[in-house]
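User: Can you predict the 3D structure of Endolytic murein transglycosylase? Sequence below.
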Amino acid sequence: MLLLEVVLILGGLVLGYSAWKVSASVDQSLHLGGVELLDVPTGTNPNRMFYRMEGQGLIKDAFWLRLYWRFNMAGTALHTGEYRMTPGMTVRDLFDAWRRGDVVRYNLTLVEGWNFRQVRAALAKHEKIKHTLDGMSDAEVMDELGHPTVFPEGRFFPDTYKFVRGMSDVELLQQAYARLEEVLAKEWADRPAELPYRDPYQALIMASLVEKETGVPQERGQIAGVFVRRMQIGMQLQTDPTVIYGMGERYNGKITRADLREPTPYNTYVISGLPPTPIAMVGREAIHAALNPVPGSSLYFVARGDGSHVFSDDLDAHNSAVREYQLKRRADYRSSPAPQNGNGNGKSLPDVPVQQEAPAVPPAIGPAEAPAEAPDSGDAPKQ
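Assistant: Sure. Here are the predicted structure tokens for Endolytic murein transglycosylase:
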């Protein structure tokens, strides 16, 4: 009888001590020198994390934490990613963050008007992204994304994408690709009749021209209207950004009359209609403008120098506006479509070289080698 009492007393003491140790281990403060990030890699289980944290000096009593997790949090998912630890934080606080999946999220911003090289440069520069596409050609990248016949330019939606450490560049591009498809399909479905586009891909190409020509957001629809009316009557579009894109890495911040005459597949001073592909990423507003051009009769516009434009219905009015703004010409002056010397059919070239500012983002402007003809439009929504 006495032995049984002793055993029960000792058992109670052991259980009490164990309960105290478990509670103390969970309520202990993390040993931090400041704000720190704790990385939970894919496939890591809680037991490994406890011993790793103990080895790093962040906690004590990993054994007791294992017991607590086993009896109180068994089956709780341990979300991959980084967790922010702040001074005064306890292990219990960290467990709550693990339970919520409260991982640190990072931002990647893809900007309207960027080309695909700039997109790839932004991905490669972000140290929290898992880089799997380094050294691949653009065609190999699209194959990796599951769209082997699609030309990449303009096929990704500009936005701020949130991700956790270790997300791959492929996953982020897949999100941006799917988002562009979604927005384009919605805008295409709501389009008015009598637009000069054969399919959504042509609307996307037009949207990229509008994106690159627009300095004041409110003018997108007017600029689209000028280009659409030119297409409808067979006038060349004559827009400088297509020349720049076709020049690729040769572009040094300005274009000349020789550049305007160069027969690249993208040069809308030489070709009729749209270029074979988009020349940049486009936002929803540019897509909407391309599919909802502002009605009117203007066929020309000239930059005022403050980002806005003067729109003209006829050649005389346009050339008058060009002369007015050439008097106070700045480095970023441009007339687009160009001032005409002939009968206003949109096919003659300006008398003076057209000056352009160098782009704000340094990577190369256009493709190293432009496609000779329009590539497969791939997964664009059908009519």
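The longest helix spans residues 2-27. Residues 195-355 form one domain.
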